[in-house]
Amino acid sequence: MSTAIDTPPATTEEVTAQGKARAKRGETLAGWAFAAPFAVLFGLFLVVPALYGLYLSFTGETLTGAGSGLVGFSNYADALRDPDMWKSLGNTLWFTVLSTVPLIVLSLALALLVNLGLPGRWLWRLSFFLPYLLASTVVVMFWSWMYNPKLGLINAVLDKFGAGPVAWLQDPKVAMISVVITTLWWTIGFNFLLYLAALQNIPEQQFEAAALDGAGKWRQLFSIVIPQLAPTTALLVTLQILASLKVFDQIYMLTNGGPAGTTRSIVQYIYESGFTGYRFGYSSAISYLFFALIVLVSLAQYKLINRRSVA
Amino acid sequence: MTADFSRRSLLKTAAALAGGGLLVGCAPGASRSTANLNYWHLLTGGDGTVMAGLVDAVNAANLGFHTTQTVLAWGPPYYTKLAMASAGGRAPDVAIMHASRIAGYAPGGLLEPWDLDLLAEAGLRESDFPARVWEKCQYDGKLYAIALDTHPFVLYYNTEHAEKAGVTEALHTLKSPEEFTEVATKLQKVTGKHGLSYGYLGDGAQMWRLWYTLYKQTGADMTLVPGQPAKVDKDAAVKTLSFVQSLLNDTIASRSGDGGTATSEFLHGESGMFFGGVWELPVLKEAKLPVDAVPIPTMFGTQAAYADSHTFVLPRQSKVSPERRKHVYTMVAELLKRSVKWAGGGHIPAYQPVATSAEYQALKPQSNYAGIPDYVNYDPDVWFSGAGSDFQNYFAENVQNVFLGSGDPAAGFDGFVARLNKLLDRPQPV
Amino acid sequence: MSTYTLSRGVRPSIKQTHKPGENPWSVSRMAALLVLAVLAVTWLVPFGWAVLTSLKSEADAGASQITLNPPDGFSFEAYRKVLSAGDIPSWAWNSLITSVAITLITVATSALAGYAFSRVNFKGKRLLYAAIIAAIIIPPQLLIVPLFRQMLAFNLVDTYWGIILPQAFAPAMVLILKRFFDQIPVELEDAARVDGAGRLRVFWSVVLPLSRPILAAVAIFVFIGAWNNFLWPFIVTTDADLMTLPVGLQTVKSAYGLQYAQNMASAILAALPLVVVFLFFQRQIIKGIATTGFGGQ
Known about the structure:
The structure holds three protein chains of three kinds.
Chain A: H1 12-56, H2 74-81, H3 83-115, H4 121-129, H5 136-146, H6 153-160, H7 175-200, H8 204-212, H9 217-228, H10 230-245, H11 249-254, H12 266-276, H13 280-310
Helix pairs in contact in A: 1-13, 2-13, 3-7, 3-10, 3-12, 10-13, 12-13
Chain B: H1 2-25, E1 36-41, H2 45-60, E2 66-72, H3 76-87, E3 94-98, E4 111-112, H4 116-122, H5 131-136, E5 138-139, E6 142-143, E7 146-147, E8 149-158, H6 159-165, H7 168-173, H8 177-191, E9 196-197, H9 204-217, H10 234-247, H11 259-267, E10 273-277, H12 281-286, E11 291-295, E12 305-308, E13 310-315, H13 322-337, H14 340-343, E14 348-349, H15 352-355, H16 358-361, E15 376-377, H17 391-404, H18 409-425
Parallel strand pairs in B: 1-2, 1-3, 9-10, 12-15
Antiparallel strand pairs in B: 3-13, 4-13, 5-6, 7-13, 8-10, 8-11, 8-12, 8-14
Chain C: H1 27-55, H2 58-61, H3 77-85, H4 87-119, H5 125-137, H6 144-154, H7 160-164, H8 171-182, H9 186-194, H10 199-210, H11 212-228, H12 231-236, H13 245-251, E1 252-253, H14 260-292
Helix pairs in contact in C: 1-14, 3-14, 4-8, 4-11, 4-13, 9-10, 11-14
């Protein structure tokens, strides 16, 4: 771009400085032009609701729009004193504990079996992974039919063995276990695939060396395979725990939180406080308490994993 | 690379499709034309089949509109969705709501009132409905619901067993709890198993329905006003709770009967009496049981009966089409005129021309309890009570132990009231 | 929205892993095969049982006798009834429209933004980047109340855009694409820049063609996630005509009560689209999960 005649000729330094500034501006413009579509959606539908939710948690706003005045910390105080909130949180933690261990151990076992290179591998992969692609609704439809106390497959099979019918979804002692079993069936495919990929990454030489040393198959498993899989295990445990804390779909659809609130998850309680109970402000407060928990758990996991890899 | 290329073009075609679809389908539901009404309800099973039949009949009458029914699951899923639809979005043109739930919707503006003039045009008047039912459908001086039926909690008895025990007359005339216990004991001797079946375990609604009937029989009130402590009659409550507790002694009735086993027991003739809602009638009749139904005998002084009503309500819509609205009035009137079919399911039609008709009066045992609407008792008027709400769960949480025999009636009732007070303390969210 | 991680590139095919000289037909391997077969069959049972039920007559499906050979034989009657009722096709259509839109918008915005992060030095980049990383921690479940309130305000409840927009962006995908673009040598673009091509042109004609595999993978995963998503479409739709397939199936009941054969037929019909997607895109899906941990809930 040439300048007009009456402006004094710029020095080389000034030219490069101006050029740099213009280039910078051009960069910024280009950068934002590219990032804008994403940034707009991100801002409008994640940042804004996140901040708005925080604001809501300090009001008494309801579904009908009433009560929008500020109420200070009373929503948070109420939430911390609410036995149903603690119960839902407890259920969620219990679900996390119950589901994480089998989902890790069983998926590893499956991956180990499939990794043996036995014939029919596409069939194994399909069987274990297919459920993962199903929608939660479909999974629940399959399983609530199998859990049907009078007409369901599971009780019919139990009956053949002389065992009594179990009220899988109606008995408070069993309901959560039923939910965990369904979750196990549904989501194990993901862990299974990750383990399978990781298993194939273990260098052949490690096994040869161990075999030369006379280590049997099981020794190899414990001294080579499992340690080599540690990063994958760490990743899976992290993902598992975070996903379990956020559970909603299958519990809502299988038991609706029942019987008598013994399976209701914290996300379902957030949903119920807000939409069934109309209390948007209160529901937002619980959401933020829960969010604080998620942040804590994520930080803890991050620290733990970091320490491990440093060591 | 060909695979990738074809995937790319697949995406392009999909883009075109989606773009076109979005433009075209931005407002799907050509069903929103004037002549199509959206009708939500939560009736399934036997009730659902009858309702579907009634809707088909009205559609077949070709009155210038077509009604499409959408059925949602009973209870919280239905009521939550209804509230959300009314809050914003496309609420149905007409929906079923239990009368006991109106107090949780009308105050918040989630419902629109019925226009009495338009109702008159459609042929419906206040005189066509029982007074107490009409009253329950009001809020703040406006009419928010048109009742389809009243479905109370009644006493069924096995006519053969009653005959053998010689208590048939007593069942119709007894006036005290002691007499009732006597009748139950006599029936127990006849069946050899239990005199009475009462399935309540794990079911707050069942517990509430029986107890509330007896409580109201004492003449007591339960007034729940947000911002004030609950006004209850503790003595009456304890008296009636103790009475129920005394019946569940494993001789007269099973101590821990749940819905399924209680119904089964009565169906197989292993007991003489059965506390149940009128909606249980079809199952009993289908089993060809020799059964009769009467209002729960007035043991504590005043005639009373717990009941609820299915009513038609107008959910709030952001854009109301006057023509569709008019069709709704016609539709409701037509359904009501045919509601004698609804009575087949055990319900008492609210529409008086049907309730007083010979066709209905000929239905037995339905016509035996047809007088209940005159002294019916609905759940206390408050935003958190009603069918499918947590209210009955609070009752269950505190009273189940009392019924099981391990809890103290006074303590149980105190717990229940405390729970209510906690809710009353809160500002009303509607 | 998914989390991810990078591990070394891996081919997910299963190598022969029995050691040379080891008997592939040894007892222990046969035992392992048996165990595997039993487990696989067990895993397929819920699916298979649903199919079986859906092919029975309604009377047989509701009978308390569990049988593989029902008195009324097998037929597609349940499927016929379900399809003619018209709900499922219309829900499937809603799912298709919204999922395709979500996929296209997400892939486009993520690619553009990822490229910006990778190649362009713009003011506020670090802030936006930090915001994205922070946002990955926020579970969408927590935003249902404020988002619903927002949708009420925007008048988007019960609309396609109401379903699409809150799902049409994926912070995790931006990061994944950024890392991918980082690996493309800058020289390739410089060549085009020297020829006078603008940034967008370079992006379109140089970078994107090289990114087909990752873009395809992103598209597939976003599509699957959008199709299967329950919570948000459940919250934002109340009109049964607007519901997506998972939501409609769960929310709308039949007035005639539970018809088990038809119920299972609906479930199978709902499962089919993604089963088909899986059969077509098996390799990409498996590769995607194995290499980047896509799809971690």
